[in-house]
Design goal:
The chain is an all-alpha fold. The protein has 16 helices and no strands.
Length: 261
């Protein structure tokens, strides 16, 4: 990274992640991008993920576009409602609903009503398997939990990758969720705790803290976040990269979130 601008290095890290052969890594990179602003480059990269062969990557793209509130992606999200994977359909519908697009409500309502879904003319006959799974309470719950990982983790939703890390490491879950929930708290004590979390031994905590500081607009923590671009875990690098890009985007330079009195 020597002699290289942090933002350029950040984009390279994300580009590497988006082209990883392992779909889990692609999901991690895409999930991390949800913290970024809805600008042409970031939105374009996420929308291109709708062509990915792995459904979990397409699902993550829907969720990330929702997190960055990309209303310009509504046409792409509507098209994703025809995806063969129910997880993607649910993620697209949820994002459309969150963005205020009526199509999202129509899909969720159709799923809720069940027997009226066909009469709406929305679902094609080829979606039989999808409907069966989405009408199954357990199946829908599992889809919803993964799709709504950001909601589970509060305002700083750490993304699908971090959520899965939480489930695998019970010892880190409390700290990671705490970092996510404190993202909007500008009290010096909370901010300091999150900054200290950037050096935590557990990768989910480091990733969540980088994301939280980015969402809080803490440009004063940029140097510490930049250091994570060389973290030993790819997942942390992705979160740090997205955080660096967000903090360096117009409207953030030279600003630090004020502390509560």
């Amino acid at each position: 990274m020597f002699g290289q601008e942090p933002v350029d290095h950040a984009w390279q890290i994300l580009d590497r992640g988006l082209h990883e052969g392992n779909p889990a890594k692609r999901v991690q990179a895409i999930s991390a991008m949800g913290v970024m602003r809805a600008q042409p480059k970031s939105v374009g990269l996420l929308e291109s993920a709708f062509d990915d062969k792995d459904y979990s990557v397409r699902q993550a793209a829907c969720a990330a576009l929702g997190q960055m509130k990309s209303r310009q992606s509504i046409p792409k999200l509507r098209a994703a409602l025809d995806d063969k994977a129910p997880e993607v359909v649910f993620a697209a519908a949820k994002t459309l609903y969150d963005l205020g697009d009526p199509m999202g409500r129509q899909v969720l309502t159709a799923v809720l009503l069940g027997d009226q879904a066909d009469s709406s003319g929305f679902f094609a006959s080829s979606m039989h398997d999808m409907k069966a799974k989405m009408h199954d309470t357990k199946g829908l719950m599992l889809v919803g939990v993964k799709t709504s990982a950001g909601v589970f983790l509060g305002p700083a939703g750490a993304g699908i990758g971090v959520a899965e890390g939480l489930l695998k490491d019970a010892n880190a879950s409390g700290k990671t969720v705490a970092a996510a929930l404190l993202a909007e708290d500008k009290h010096p004590e909370a901010v300091q705790a999150i900054r200290e979390g950037l050096s935590d031994k557990n990768w989910t905590v480091r990733a969540a803290c980088a994301r939280a500081l980015a969402l809080a607009g803490r440009v004063d923590a940029l140097k510490e976040i930049v250091a994570l671009l060389d973290d030993k875990r790819d997942e942390v690098q992705y979160s740090a990269a997205a955080a660096v890009i967000r903090l360096k985007q117009p409207g953030y330079a030279g600003k630090a979130a004020p502390a509560k009195k």
